[in-house]
Amino acid sequence: MSRSAHPAGPRHGDVLPEGHYSAPPADLNALDPKVWSRTVTRTADGKVTVGGVAVTRLAEEFGTPAYFLDEQDFRARCQAWRDAFGPDADVFYAGKAFLSRAVVRWLHEEGLNLDVCSGGELTTALDAGMPAERIAFHGNNKNAEEIERAVAAGVGRVVLDSFQEIVRVAHIADRLGKRQRVQIRVTVGVEAHTHEFIATAHEDQKFGLALAGGQAAEAVRRALKLDGLELIGIHSHIGSQIFDTAGFEVAARRVVSLLAEIRDEHGVELPEIDLGGGLGIAYTSDDDPREPHEIATALRAIVTRECAAANLRTPRISVEPGRAIVGPTAFTLYEVGTIKPLDGLRTYVSVDGGMSDNIRTALYDAEYSVALVSRSSDAEPMLVRVVGKHCESGDIVVRDAFLPADLAPGDLIAVPATGAYCRSMASNYNHALRPPVVAVNEGAGRVIVRRETEEDLLRLDVG
Ligand code: LLP
User: Fold this and answer.
1) Given 21, 117, 311, 463, which is the most exposed site by the fewest CB atoms within 10 A?
2) Total domains, the chain
3) Looking at 78, 307, 391, 422, which residue is catalytic?
C-alpha cells in the first residue's frame, strides 16, 4: 500500500463517524456497472474512459466541471423502455430530467414521445423537430400563453391539473377552432416511499385532483361537457426515485376503478391511462432499481386483470420515465482543488463545482458515489466529503464516500448517475457558470449544451 498523504481520516477497521456509508469498498478502483453508464471502463493505464475517450482527454478538451453523457447508453435505455412496453403502449420521456435539442432528436429517432412541463421545454421540443402530436404538456399552473402555444402547435395531449385549467384549455381550443385531446391528472392517495418533496400522489399537495372525495370524478364531468376538449384518459404520477412496484400497482388499480365509474356514469370508456414516471435508479451500490421490463410486466398484468374484472376494454397505457432513462447515462467530472483532513472526522475534498451543478444532495439529502478517474490508486481508503466551492456549508456534492488516501489537488474525480435533475436544476449561485453537457460516443465528445460564460451572466444583467 502506498503511503497515505492525508493521515487524519479513518482507516479500515477504525470505528467510523456517523454517516450514510457502509464499509469502505473492497476495491476503490472498481467501477460498479450499477451506477456507471455502460461504456464506462477503467483501462490498463488506470484511466477511466467513456465512449472510448479517456476522462483526462475530455477534461483537456472540454474543461471541468462538466457533465459527460454516454449517448450509446442513453439510446439503449430508450430502446429498453420502448421494447418493454411494446407497440400497444407509449413511452413519454420526461424532459424535466434533462432536455436539449440533441436529446429530443435521439428520442425521436428511438421512437419515444416527450413530456414537457413549461413553455421553454415545449419550444426546445418543437425546435428540435419532435412532432407535436408526440408531445404531452404538463404542469399545475400553465399560463394562457403556454396553453395557447401548445394547442396551436397541436400537442398530442394536455394533462389537466385543476378545475380552472379545464375551462381555460377548453376556451383556448374553442377560440383556435380546435378540439384538444386531454387527460385529467388525478391523485390516487398512494404514499410513495421517497423524499417528501418528490412524492406526488398523497392528497395534501399541489398536483392533480383527488380521487377520494370525488374531485377527479367532478373534473371528468366538467371536461366531458366542453366541446373544446376530447377527454382521452386519466393520468397519475405517484412520485420519483421509487424502487417498489407496489405503489404503481395500487395507482393503476385505482385509476382503472375510476374508468369503471366513468363508464357507469357517462357510458364512455376512456381509451388511455398514463401511469407517470418515477422509477428509481442506482446512485450507490446499495440501490437495487427495477428494470423497465419488470415495471412493464407488472403494470400490464394489473391493468389487464382489473379491466377484465370491471368488464372494461383494456386502455392503452403510457408511462413517463425521466430519471430512469437519462440519470444513469452521465457523470459529472470535477477537478480536485483543496483537501482538508479533519481529525477523527473525515477529509473534505473541494471540487471546482458544487451545489450549482448538483443541488440534489442539499435539497433531498441525496446520496451519490464518487471515484478517482484520472488514475488508479492502491492507497488505503479515506473517508471523504466532496464539497463544492460555494459560500455555504451545505454545499455538499457527496456526503460520505471513500477515495484513495493519496488523492491530490489536480486529480480528476467523477460523480456518476448525474444525468437527471442536475443540469436541469443547475443554478448560477455565486455567479457560477453552469457546466456544459458533452455527449460522448464512439471515440469523441461533442458539446450539446455549452458552458456558460461570464458574458452570458453580464448579458442578462441590464441594469
Ligand atoms: N411525469 C410527471 C408528471 C412528473 O411530474 C415527473 C417528475 C415525471 C413524469 C418523471 O419522473 P422521473 O421518472 O424522472 O422520476 N427534482 C427531483 C425530481 C422531481 C420529479 C418531478 N416530476 C429530483 O431531483 O429527484
Assistant:
1) 463
2) 2
3) 391
Distance in Å from the first CA to the final CA of the chain: 58
Q: Determine the structural domain holding residue 56 and report its residue range.
A: 41-70+328-460
Measured distance CA(103)–CA(89) in Å, rounded: 21
Exposure b/e, 296-318, CB count within 10 A at least 16 = b: bebbbebbeebbeeeebebbebb
Residues flanking ligand 1, CB < 6 Å: 94, 96-97, 115, 138, 198, 237, 240-241, 276-279, 320-324, 360, 364, 420-421, 425
Rounded to whole angstroms, the Cα distance separating 203 from 431 reads 38
Q: Are residues 259 and 349 in the same domain?
A: no
Q: Is 213 buried (19+), middle (13-18) or exposed (0-12) by CB count in 10 A?
A: exposed
Contact, 30 vs 40, CB < 8 A?
Answer: no
Q: Which atom of ligand 1 is nearest to the CA of 280?
A: 15
* Nearest residue to 132 via CA among 158, 164, 105, 155: 155
Contact 155, 142 (CB under 8 A): no
In a domain, 121, yes or no: no
Identity of residue 139: G
Tell whether 263 and 412 lie within a shared domain: no
Within 358-461, strands assigned E span 371-372, 381-387, 396-404, 412-416, 437-441, 444-449
pLDDT in tens, 334-387: 999 999 999 889 999 999 999 999 999 999 999 999 999 999 999 999 999 999
Q: Whose CA is nearest to atom 19 of ligand 1?
A: 198
At 158, list the grid cell.
394536455
Confidence of residue 19 (pLDDT cuts 50, 70, 90): low
Q: Got the DSSP string for 59-76?
A: HHHH-SSEEEEEHHHHHH
Q: Is 391 an active-site residue?
A: yes
Q: Say if residue 294 is in the same domain as residue 377.
A: no
Cβ density class 412-446: b for 16+ within 10 Å, e for less? bbbbbbbbbbbbbbbeebeebbbbbbbbbbeeebe
| Confidence (pLDDT) at 15 | 55
Q: Which residue has the cell 457558470?
A: 433
